[in-house]
# Entry
Amino acid sequence: MPQTSYPVKMVAARIGQLSDSASLVDTKSYTNGMTASTTGTDVLFFGTLAALETDGTIKRLDAQADVVAGVVMLSDAYEVGVEVGPGNDTAGSPGVMAKATVSLLQRGRIWVMVDETVAAGDAVRYYAKAVSGKRQGAFRTTDPTGTDTVLITAGARWVTGGTTTTGAELEIDVLNLAFTAD
# Structure
């Protein structure tokens, strides 16, 4: 059957996908140490930051003092329904389920989930806790009053702008991040 329609503009990338403009990439694998859930609260969303637990596993961020382990990377090697499933956000965004092995980007460029429109050169912030309608570990540029966001003062920058539907390309070096709580 012939293709009868196509998008006018191709999508640059999928959320959590490594950028092909990165010349240096460091990744590390961890286990999602969150408790299994049928409601999606155990899912680590692609393109969001994950926190390191004391036992060496990772989890969703839930405090400004959490140790950032890296950005959850997308992979087509995950088995749907076993390792990847819908999360508990309003969109049912997919992510890595509890007890599955997760690849995290620690240094390089990756397409991330943003909560607002961002532009190259803007400040880089992320949600450290669950906020109504927002994803823990999702990125943004402004500081919304009354939320637990963290400003990254060194080690991350926007390479391209983006929106909540397209995501944005972020260059990050987790081992050299510097923060200040908003």
